[in-house]
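Hello forum,

I keep getting stuck at the same step: I have a sequence, I want structure tokens, and every attempt I make locally crashes halfway through. Rather than fight my setup again tonight, could one of you with a working pipeline run this one for me? It's a single chain of 125 residues.
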Amino acid sequence: MHGQSAEAAKVSIWSGLYSIEQAEYGRQEYMDKCSNCHADNLVGMFPAPPLRGAGFVTRWNGKSVRDIYSRIRSTMPADEPGTLSRKETFAITAFLFQENGFPAGENELTGKPKELQQMMISLEK
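Reply #2:
Ran it on my machine without issues. Output:
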């Protein structure tokens, strides 16, 4: 990687950063731990914002997977912030990506903070 720019090291969400199985596990965790505030269909219920659709994607466009992962891990669920495990947080993140039309890949979403920082959420393929 010596001499390679940081921009070149970035990985697009469009390259399939999670597995279908992980997203399905995330769906179960979401229904159990998130749907009370964000609704079963992810449309949100005030004050919890929607987690699906143009508003969600626009909000996270240009940010890293680390940004959304950290937000979920440290602040959710709202009534018990910081209680989700790493596995649960990765799975819920994968589920949100699936629900917002980002493609699955062969491997589960995982990684260290520095690796997650290189995974970018983008509206453009």
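The radius of gyration is 14 Å. If your local run keeps crashing, start a new thread with the error log.
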